[in-house]
Task: inverse folding
């Protein structure tokens, strides 16, 4: 049996789409990892009756409720007031948080601004029936309440503050009080090169018998599977089946990206990489360097966005004229030449038409040539990606990394 | 008076945090722009009773409800079934969508895979009381229902499909049926270089008198203001005030990115650009080339991720040794040298420490030097950005574009 958890994110900026709700994702992932079944996530506006109504709904469904947002200093921030009003208790003042606020202003503000605005006193308030959660990363106090087996956590909406407070305070509290949950066995499988229906077909119907909790999550160019089961032995058996049926497409059995998986292999083998990209325009390099420590194996990348830059790298002008800048020959030479230039073990080359314009009947928008050059040989292929400019670019990046991964694994 | 709208996003991947809910942001922004007041956004799991219960809640609150997700081919996709069950009607089959699916398979799949899996037939089903919305960008049929003044739209969860279907079908339907909302005059102001409190101080209290609907939305490195008012004359007056008080930081009075604003100026002036970046690792180039038509002015970019690459571009080895790879001198030379290499009007240089490791007391994580070189002079500066690796990189990219924009505007 699971305990239900839910997430309540508060603020007009979420409803109006001004802010992307990364807090909901962070909390969903954390609560799931702790072993809770997250049953709902709700965003509502900064109004006391709305917040109180959503809190009431949540208390009817869930054991653990995390509220974020609406703890700021301005009059439209009303989450403290809403929780206090729901429980019909007054707000009280945390001297400890206020001394933190004072320190914060001393450290961060320009001298002229070191006086704490009256408005900000509010940030140290919490409902009388709650336990304050000191915020050392910002100025808004958090707090939590316990009602029998139910827990309500109220945290600031600034993502960095929320994440640090959750990891440093809430995880410990929940692990201690829901010890039986944390232990639930699970399995993550991250794959490239297969679509969702292909994966389902390869797994086959018998895979799902006897039943267990299964989720399949497609993202551009890759698919993840996440499985939870009651026993570790079930997880072990499922992993064996997955290895046999999907193994050649699995790049990780953990929550890492393809670029991270590649980074691990290149670091372990002491090999290096360089990239020359046209239509992806820097996204391939950016994806590679998103991984901390990428400088250990990634020497550099060139966005060859003009024919001049392609020629400077060593792609002959006559070849571009004869075959076109979007051709398998150019992709191949980009990979070869950037590898030579960088003196790296591998070189990646990408050229294509990201759109929305620039396509033709023979070379439509979405056409991308990818090549990987290594110490022994080069490999490459032609792809026709579906979607708008950014989707074509994203899929081309993922496919280029897939080519590389198949070479080095 | 506003009409209330709300968003119902369906899928365990959202609750578990496997997927970031970009659809909620997209829909929130679109519905707000159409003039609706978005009062709630809810995510729930793929279960018929849950979806039906959330739909019932929404129908008690809102005039327009948009559901997305759970229209896929696998057995855990249950949104069609849930809506049909809520209205107690059967599902019927859309021949038109199925012929689209057939075309889709013919065009995209490898010859061996052109047979349509039985599973996929489900994607052409819709509740009998609904109007089908043909999906030309994917295989899942959408649909909508009308109940008096209330509208329910059900769209696929794949962001590209959702966005295209919303823009091509739903916007038109809503504009026609809620004409009084859409006409509402509004103003968008996009700014760089000022924080939210700085903007509020510069606007002053008198700006808000008499009252109107005002939203201020900070994003990494920039802030947007969105204003709605009853009369166009009010909007005109507010725009004049904003020009006087904030004008030097406004890069656009429309919904475009800073990179797009830069692209417009460079295209009009027939000037060109190149970039050499270290810590941003390709993200600066990627942001520039995200703009369609960037090849008109962007010659190329180099991710100088190793000292070797910096030296190859023309930064002297002894200078890197003396000053460090993260120094104002290196940023300046990156900008100058890439400008010379590209023979472009402008060159951008970025070097810094994105973290999480690599920082020191003198050069902490988040320290970034940025330089822009032009035909007349170079400008640059030192910045200390707060946040994790990706936040530091994103802020550095935005700041580099800000330097360039201030040079060329």
Result:
């Amino acid at each position: 049996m699971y305990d239900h958890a839910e997430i309540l994110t508060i603020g007009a900026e979420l409803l109006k789409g001004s802010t992307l709700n990364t807090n909901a994702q962070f909390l969903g992932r954390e609560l799931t990892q702790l072993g809770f079944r997250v049953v709902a996530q709700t965003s509502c506006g900064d109004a006391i009756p709305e917040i109180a109504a959503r809190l009431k709904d949540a208390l009817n469904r869930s054991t653990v409720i995390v509220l974020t947002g609406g703890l700021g200093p301005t009059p439209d921030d009303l989450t403290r007031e809403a929780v206090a009003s729901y429980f019909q208790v007054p707000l009280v003042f945390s001297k400890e948080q206020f001394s933190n606020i004072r320190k914060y202003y001393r450290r961060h503000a320009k001298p002229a601004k070191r006086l704490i605005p009256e408005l900000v006193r509010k940030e140290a308030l919490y409902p009388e029936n709650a336990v304050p959660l000191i915020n050392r990363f910002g100025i808004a106090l958090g707090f939590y309440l316990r009602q029998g087996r139910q827990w309500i956590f109220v945290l600031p909406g600034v993502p960095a503050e929320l994440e640090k407070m959750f990891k440093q305070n809430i995880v410990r509290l929940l692990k201690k009080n829901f010890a039986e949950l944390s232990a639930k066995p699970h399995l993550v499988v991250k794959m490239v090169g297969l679509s969702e229906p292909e994966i389902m077909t390869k797994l086959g119907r018998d895979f799902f018998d006897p039943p267990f909790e299964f989720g399949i999550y497609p993202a551009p160019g890759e698919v993840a599977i996440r499985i939870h089961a009651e026993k570790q032995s079930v997880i072990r058996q499922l992993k064996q089946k997955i290895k046999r049926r999907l193994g050649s497409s699995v790049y990780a059995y953990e929550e890492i990206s393809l670029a991270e998986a590649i980074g691990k292999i290149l670091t372990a083998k002491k090999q290096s990489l360089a990239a020359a990209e046209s239509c992806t325009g820097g996204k391939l390099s950016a994806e590679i360097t998103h991984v901390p420590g990428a400088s250990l194996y990634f020497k550099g990348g060139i966005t060859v966005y003009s024919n001049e830059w392609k020629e400077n790298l060593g792609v002959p002008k006559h070849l571009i004229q004869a075959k076109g800048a979007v051709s398998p020959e150019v992709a191949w030479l980009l990979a070869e030449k950037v590898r030579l230039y960088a003196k790296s073990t591998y070189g990646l080359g990408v050229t294509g038409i990201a759109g929305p314009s620039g396509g033709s009947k023979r070379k439509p928008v979405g056409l991308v040539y990818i090549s990987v050059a290594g110490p022994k040989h080069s490999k490459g292929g032609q792809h026709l990606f579906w979607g708008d400019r950014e989707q074509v670019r994203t899929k081309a990046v993922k496919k280029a990394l897939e080519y590389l991964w198949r070479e080095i694994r």
In short: The mean pLDDT of chain B is 92. The radius of gyration of chain B is 26 Å.
